[in-house]
Amino acid sequence: MVKKLNFYSKFSKSVSSIKIILLLFGILLSLSGCERISAPILPDDSTLKAEPLTVMTYNVYVGGSPDGLLAVENLLQVPQEVANMYNAVIASDFPSRAAAIAQSIKAYQPHLIGLQEISLIRRQSPGDRITGGLVEAEEVVLDFLQILMDALQAEGLNYQVAAQVENLDIEMPMFTDTGIDDVRLTDYDVILSRSDVVVSRPMSTNYTNALTIEMLGLEVQRGYIAVDATISGVTYRVINTHLEAEELGQGSRVAQAQELVNNLQDETLPIILLGDFNTRAPDGTAYQILLSAGYVDVWQMDSEGTGKTCCQDDDILNEVSDLSVRIDQIFVRNLKLPASVMTHTVGDKPADRLPSGLWPSDHAGVVAHFVFE
């Protein structure tokens, strides 16, 4: 867990100090998603000896950018910039985006889904952080997990939360029409399992290696989750993670990738590793750490295009997809791969945009379909 932050008891700190604080708040929001790739036609399951295994990873995007906060030159600007970010998150309309994401899930009905940036946004009115108060905001504004689960149910799908880990938890003040409120953002990574998948041995943990802000003595935790999932009589160890941001924490990201590899080195079950790794394929350092540890990037097997997954514009209203790098990936280890492994992206084609013009996320989702004969 992130240490609880009493930002505005330090309101007299220098501008350089506040930028470091704002950097912490911006870490979660600075990440993003994939180029247009046509989904393959899936095979007729009736011809298979075992049910195909389908998995998905999707960073759903909190919905706002920290750039305005990071650019402030006067402490009095901070609550206004927080308000700007909050308004951007609201304008990104996660309920409608969740419905679009649920439709992508319905198209392929994966057995397991790794989700990142599952956010819980809460508000307190009036706020107390600017005066040094420590009462936490509890009024729920957006609960991404509940919204998405409701959207899946509306599509006639039955998924359950198999595991989740809490990462960033941060609260800051913002200007409103009536005064100053506090806004609290809590970030989770989640694994969803289809109702017919037997899951066991859930675990969640935060990395011991975290982005550290020395001046404030703060650690920004990220983590991973894992479950055993049994499909057609075969049990897999399924892991989902979201490594540190590419621009802000390369050292932490590399350390987290190495820690993940070390923690899983004795696992004997077939491993399926999902996530937003924030490391560019094929040359990223963390990406190479995974390959060196025996992980296979299944995108390289049978796919169309380059699989770019990041990033649309901050407001996700760009008409032409801006996806330019592949940082959302699916790896396997301890698994004898079948002859057919089809991979593709979702949420990145013009037809996927909402009537409002929004993309479902600033990332594309990635799907892998393992056909066992």
Kindly describe this structure.
Helices cover 21% and strands 32% of the residues. By secondary structure, it is of the alpha+beta class. The strands form three sheets. Strands 1, 2, 3, 4, 5, 14 and 15 form a seven-stranded mixed sheet that branches. A six-stranded mixed sheet has the order 6-9-10-11-13-12, with no helix packed on it. Strands 7-8 form a two-stranded antiparallel ribbon. Residues 1-49 and 213-218 have low confidence and may be disordered.
In brief:
The chain is of the alpha+beta class and 373 residues long. The protein has helices spanning 15-27, 67-70, 78-91, 94-108, 144-154, 250-264, 285-292, and strands at residues 53-59, 112-124, 139-143, 159-176, 179-194, 198-206, 211-213, 218-220, 223-231, 234-242, 271-276, 296-297, 328-333, 340-346, 365-371.
